[in-house]
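Thread: Newbie trying to understand structure tokens

Hi all, I'm a second-year student working on a class project, and my supervisor (Dr. K.) asked me to get a predicted structure for one chain before our next meeting. I've only ever worked with sequences, so writing a 3D structure as a token string is new to me. If someone could post the tokens and maybe explain what I'm looking at, I'd be very grateful. Here's the chain:
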Amino acid sequence: MSNTFGEYLRITTWGESHGPGIGVVIDGLPAGIPVSIEKIADDLARRRPGGALASARQEPDTPQIQSGLVDGLTLGSPLAIWIESVDARPQDYDALSELYRPGHADFTTEARYGIRDARGGGRASARETAARVAAGSVARALLDREYGIEIVGWVDSIGSVSAEVNPTVVGFDQVEASPVRCPDGNCSVAIVEQIEAAREAGDSLGGWVGVVARGVPAGWGDPVFAKVKSLLGSAMLSIPAAVAMELGDGVAATTRTGSQNNDQMTSDGSGGMRQETNRSGGLQGGITSGAPVWARVGFKPTSTIATAQETINTSGEAVVFEGKGRHDPCVVPRAVPIVEAMMALVLADRMLASRATPPT
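---
Reply by user tm_fold:
Sure, no problem. This is what the structure looks like when written as tokens:
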């Protein structure tokens, strides 16, 4: 089972959904980077369950630094973070150990390993992403310290409601002012109504998260297998419930001509390049261009719903399953800090890679 991500900045996560906790080790961090435990806690609070539009599970998600940090500065040794689970209810899943839930990884995990953790999905649960958000917070501190890079995520659409958001100017405070992290005020209200309706109907919704990294310099990434876009694809699609990723204008580019789609280049007046547009999402040939790196990540509807669904049990017998307990009617708003974290981890890794193999 692969639990490690990254090449030069490596994270390894551990823990199960309803086990004692979740943890992450971050290796490859330079020494002397200021890391705030309060900032990590703030990022975790944005992913944390609870509230009228999310799972009722109440986890404080208080990060505990186990190693690698002294007086708020990294030591260059592995940084370990532990997040205790205090509201786990493994007994709620006793009845599910003998059936395969539709849309979940129950059957496929058992097919792969011959065993599975039925307590909320074990390693396949989105509970694991708390560790990613903690690691991403540290990666953001590194990017901010070295280049002043700003990463902002937002809800771009949910269900039939799509927002109009400009990645160049969208701000963190603007996003967080919305209960569903949609910076388009009219769409935010409509999205809340849709999620509430889905919950009342015992159903769920999917949607898209947008993310942008501003201040990324040109020259990160490689032109073949270590393209930033391919690494972002791997990172984003490893998030539970993620089903698609668009870089820049994404699928819309497939309907255009080259003259309509190419980003025209001009001089920035100081020996560099400036793009008139940024349809390519800040990448050319898989390497950062100096323009903002932006993408959208699509998430499927939450698999556990209160509506009756047909499935089978471990004996192959047909059964009817109705989801009960604490589940999100829509995971998209809580996915925003996870998407931001994976963007930060990819960019921090490629920053360190560019320093390890400088141009000759």
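A couple of things are worth pointing out once you decode it. The chain has a mean pLDDT of 91. The domain at 8-356 is CATH 3.60.150.10 (Chorismate synthase, AroC fold). Feel free to ask follow-ups in this thread.
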